[in-house]
Design brief:
Layout lengths: L1 H25 L2 E3 L8 E5 L1 H13 L4 E6 L4 E3 L3 E4 L6 E6 L2 E3 L16 E6 L2 E6 L3 E3 L3 H4 L7 H5 L3 E6 L2 E6 L2 E3 L6 E4 L2 E6 L2 E3 L10 E4 L2 E11 L5 E3 L3 E11 L5 E6 L5 E15 L3 E7 L4 E17 L1 E6 L16 E14 L3 E6 L6 E13 L15 E5 L1 E10 L5 E3 L3
Parallel strand pairs: 1-3, 2-4, 3-6, 4-7, 5-8, 6-9, 7-10, 8-11, 9-12, 10-13, 11-14, 12-15, 13-16, 14-17, 15-18, 16-18, 17-19, 18-20, 19-21, 20-22, 21-23, 22-24, 23-25, 24-26, 25-27, 26-28, 27-29, 28-30, 30-31
Bound molecules: 2-acetamido-2-deoxy-beta-D-glucopyranose (2 copies).
The site of one 2-acetamido-2-deoxy-beta-D-glucopyranose has 5 residues, from loops.
Length: 417
C-alpha cells in the first residue's frame, strides 16, 4: 500500500515538474495576442507588437520567439524592431498576416519620417520565418498623381528594411505591394534569404523586390519575385553576393546599380547569379552606372540563366539616365571581369546583348561562353538578319568569347584553344 501511494505521489510530482518545465520552455515565446493585439485588420495593433517585442528582445537566454499567430490580420503603423537584444537569437514567427494602413494619409509618420513600414535594426541572429503575408498596401501610393502630389510621391515608404544586422535569415514569408522598395538589406552581414515570394504589379513604380546596400555575404535563393522594378538591385558597398534559383518577372531583371550618381564613388564586387529564370522582364542581367561616377564593379558571374521574352537579356549600360537629360563625362565607374556563361532563351527586342561602355573608361575582361539568344521580334526587313535574328550592340567593351556566342559579339576576341 505504502509503495503504491509513493508511486502516486511520485507521478503527481513528476507531472508538476513536467508542467513547470513546459511552462518555462514556453516562457521564451511571446504571442502578440497575449500582449493586446486584436488581429481583425481594423484595430491598430502597433502598440501590442511593440510590447511583445520588448519582451522578446529582453528575454535573457539563448533564444526567444515573437509569435504572430495564423488566421488573423494585424494592422501595423510604421514600426521598428530594434536591438541590441538580450536574447542571443530572435525568432520572428509570422504565421498570420500583417497589413499597412490602406490609405496614404492614414500612415502615422512620426516627425515627418515615413521612410519605411517595418524596420529591423541592430540585431545579431534574426530568424524571420512563417507563411504569413506582409502587405504594404502600396496601391494608393502608386496611383498618386506625382504632378499634383509631389511630396507624397517622393515620400513613398519602403516596405521592410533590415539594417545594421548580422546573421539574418528570412524564409517562407510573402511580401507584397510595398509603396516603394519591398525588402532592403542595409549595412548587414551574413544574410540568408530563401523560399520567399515578393509580388507587386508589373507597372508599379520603384517596387524593387530585394535591394542590397553596403551588405556583405548575402545569399538569396529559391525565391519568386514579380514586381514593377528590379527583382533584385545590388547597390553601393555590396560584396560577396550569391544569388541562385530566382524566378524573376515581370520586373526589370537583376541589376547591379545604379552606381555613380552625382559623381559619387561607389563599388560592387564578387556577385554570382546563377540558375535563374526571367519571364517578360524589361532587362535580364544588368549593370547600370551613371556618367561621371567613380568606383568599380568587378568579379561578377552570371551563369545558367534562361530568358523567356526578356527585352534586353544581357546589358551593361554606362550611360544610365532614367530622365533623358544627362551629360556625358570623362569619369565613370570602372567595370571589369564580368563573365556570362550558359545563357539561353528569347528576347522580344532585336539587340539581345548590349555592352554600352564609357569612352574614357572602357569595360575590360568581359567574358562570354555558351550564349544562345533568339529574338521573337518579327521584322519585315530580312536583309539585316543575323544568325538568330538577334543582334548585339557594343561600344568600348573589351574581352574574350569562347565557343558558341549567339548573337555574335564582335568587340570580344575569340579565345584560341
Ligand atoms: C552560392 O550558393 C550556392 C547554392 O547555395 C552554392 O552551391 C555555391 O557554392 C555558392 N557559391 C559561392 C561562391 O559562395
Ligand atoms: C554620350 O555618348 C554616347 C556614346 O558615345 C552617345 O551615344 C550619346 O549620344 C552621348 N550623349 C550625349 C548627351 O552627348
Amino acid at each position: 500500500m505504502r509503495s503504491f501511494l509513493f508511486v502516486i505521489f511520485f507521478l503527481i510530482g513528476l507531472q508538476n515538474f513536467l508542467f513547470v518545465q513546459s511552462r518555462s520552455v514556453r516562457k521564451n515565446s511571446f504571442n502578440v495576442l497575449h500582449h493586446g493585439a486584436v488581429g481583425d485588420g481594423i484595430h491598430d495593433d502597433t502598440k501590442a507588437f511593440m510590447d511583445a517585442w520588448e519582451h522578446t528582445c529582453n528575454y535573457m537566454g539563448s533564444k526567444s520567439t515573437m509569435e504572430i499567430p495564423r488566421g488573423k490580420t494585424f494592422l501595423l503603423q510604421p514600426i521598428e524592431f530594434n536591438g541590441p537584444c538580450k536574447s542571443k537569437k530572435i525568432f520572428f514567427r509570422i504565421d498570420g498576416d500583417l497589413t499597412a494602413p490602406k490609405l496614404p494619409h492614414k500612415w502615422r509618420c512620426e516627425n515627418h519620417k515615413c521612410d519605411k513600414w517595418i524596420g529591423f535594426g541592430h540585431l545579431n541572429g534574426l530568424y524571420i520565418d512563417g507563411r504569413g503575408t506582409l502587405d504594404g498596401q502600396g496601391r494608393k501610393w502608386w496611383s498618386l498623381n506625382c504632378k499634383h502630389d509631389k511630396i507624397a510621391c517622393q515620400r513613398r515608404p519602403r516596405g521592410i528594411i533590415i539594417a545594421h544586422s548580422n546573421n539574418v535569415h528570412v524564409s517562407n514569408v510573402n511580401v507584397k505591394d510595398s509603396p516603394n522598395f519591398q525588402m532592403s538589406f542595409e549595412s548587414s552581414r551574413w544574410v540568408y534569404v530563401k523560399d520567399i515570394t515578393i509580388t507587386a504589379d508589373g507597372d508599379s513604380p520603384n517596387t524593387d523586390g530585394i535591394h542590397l546596400q553596403r551588405s556583405q555575404n548575402v545569399f538569396i535563393s529559391d525565391s519568386v519575385i514579380q514586381t514593377g522594378d528590379d527583382c533584385i538591385s545590388i547597390g553601393d558597398g555590396s560584396k560577396h553576393v550569391n544569388i541562385s534559383k530566382i524566378s524573376c518577372g515581370p520586373g526589370h531583371g537583376i541589376s547591379i546599380g545604379s552606381l555613380g550618381r552625382n559623381g559619387n564613388k561607389e563599388a560592387v564586387e564578387s556577385v554570382y547569379v546563377r540558375d535563374s529564370t526571367f519571364r517578360s522582364t524589361t532587362n535580364g542581367v544588368r549593370i547600370k552606372t551613371w556618367q561621371g561616377g567613380k568606383g568599380h564593379v568587378r568579379n561578377v558571374v552570371f551563369e545558367h540563366i534562361t530568358f523567356h521574352e526578356s527585352s534586353r537579356p544581357i546589358i551593361i549600360d554606362q550611360y544610365y539616365c532614367p530622365h533623358s537629360h544627362c551629360k556625358n563625362h570623362t569619369s565613370a565607374v570602372r567595370i571589369s571581369d564580368i563573365t556570362y556563361r550558359h545563357i539561353h532563351g528569347t528576347s522580344d527586342e532585336k539587340a539581345s546583348v548590349q555592352l554600352l561602355c564609357s569612352e574614357t573608361v572602357p569595360c575590360r575582361n568581359i567574358y562570354m561562353s555558351d550564349i544562345n539568344l533568339y529574338t521573337t521580334r518579327k521584322e519585315n526587313d530580312r536583309s539585316s538578319r543575323d544568325d538568330h535574328g538577334s543582334l548585339s550592340e557594343c561600344i568600348n567593351a573589351r574581352g574574350l568569347s569562347n565557343g558558341i556566342v549567339r548573337p555574335r559579339v564582335p568587340c570580344l576576341r575569340a579565345e584560341r584553344h
